[in-house]
Amino acid sequence: MIDRERLMDQKSPAILWLRQDLRLADNIALEAVSHHLFFAVYIWDDEDPWSPGGASRWWLHKSLLSLHRSFQERGVQLILRKGKPLQVLKHLVQETKACAVYWNRCYEPYVIKRDQEIKSSLKQEGIFCQSFKGSLLTEPWEMQTTTKGAYQVFTPFWNKLKEISFARPLSVPDLQGFKPSVFSESLEEWHFNPTLWGRGLEEIWTPGEQGAWDNLSGFLNDGIQSYASRRDIPSGQYTSRLSPHLHWGEISPTQIWHEALLSCGKDSLPFLRQLGWREFSCHLLFHFPHMPFQNLRVSFSDFPWQDNPDHLKIWQTGQTGYPLVDAGMRELWHTGWMHNRVRMIVASFLVKHLLIPWQQGKEWFWDTLVDADLANNAASWQWVAGSGADAAPYFRIFNPVLQSEKFDPHGLYIKQWVPELQALNSPHIHSPWKASAQILEKAGVTLGKTYPFPLVDHAFARQRALDAFAR
């Protein structure tokens, strides 16, 4: 039973358990805990089967530093602990005589099961527990088809979502920090900074709540009006780049939704549709928890995938001989991010040109993306592979040369990330192997030495994929 007197005792603190909600504004759990003396805790669950990858850990390190400063300015402690969350929370309750624990929900299958067990166990010991919707516009179980089932097609899901009127975002509440000092582990001891790469991350990203708002403000001022017409161009900053801020909860989808509508009304819907895909992905993960591992379409279970570590490594390092594919993979390694159009192209190349299982691509993205999100990552890879609930048709195989000519016509994106081709111009930069020996020599390009020949022939790979899908 819940000890109500203890809950109302202002001398007993409450605990704010932070996860993917590293912000002060529009934080429902923070609003609830602000009625108590409280401290915040971030727990590194080292048994989580989907522990953040290398790039995400770098982001988390920076984001926690930023949040620590924000809490410190308001007299609130942010405690860091590593271990099983239930054990950590029980220890903190015992140490501080805490009366309540509040948190915002996450929706990964492992986390849902774990959180249910935590809530049940703490309540049995008289600790008040409450969780909230803090990272989505709608709960996955709230969106239902006319037959009360789960959506498996995005368009009707989006049509329903965009008609909902969402509550206005919450402002930062007044906070009352728990004064006795609580032991915290050191963030430096967690060794989240990558050793293989990281300089490129530092150059372009500012993790934290203020960084998220700076990104959103810049996009609303300069980018959203032309988003629909320019979002597929990878050579400029025509997208919001809010995805890592969203994943870590440095800004909420509700905040973005309201600010975008306030900025340009219904003209913002092409941009907000991307929030819709994020919601849809989480909806699918909740209803189909095997999505990160298994094909949603059972017919793909016998697909003749090829296990080819050499080809996988060539794709990972951006040495496929297709300039747009290589540019995308190198941008990913340098910055922890990749333009969305290029993500689709490189993913299609892996699963359809090379017939490598989508799960292997998903794992690479998980380790190298600063915005790696279990629902988005799995749903998007299955969309490209054709194995998802609402997937691209199997015969849609991106031609990397045509995609390059269409969306990077002057080769600006390629020249940025594949510098060995900088002296080539269109049309040769899109397919260097078609250029004459004289043009290549003038550009300082020696195929097979300074830049590779194509790993596979597109026409051959396309037909091989179509034959495999047909079988």
TrEMBL record:
One of its GO terms (molecular function) is DNA binding. Residues 12-137 form the Photolyase/cryptochrome alpha/beta domain. It catalyses: cyclobutadipyrimidine (in DNA) = 2 pyrimidine residues (in DNA). Binds 1 FAD per subunit. Its EC number is 4.1.99.3. Its cofactor is (6R)-5,10-methylene-5,6,7,8-tetrahydrofolate; FAD. It comes from the Bacteria. Pfam families: DNA_photolyase, FAD_binding_7. FAD binds at residues 227, 239-243, 271, 371-373. Keywords: Chromophore, FAD, Flavoprotein, Lyase. It is an enzyme of class 4 (lyase). GO terms for biological process: photoreactive repair. The record marks 305, 358, 381 as: Electron transfer via tryptophanyl radical. Belongs to the DNA photolyase family. PANTHER family: CRYPTOCHROME, CRYPTOCHROME CIRCADIAN CLOCK 5 ISOFORM X1. This is Deoxyribodipyrimidine photo-lyase. The gene is phrB.
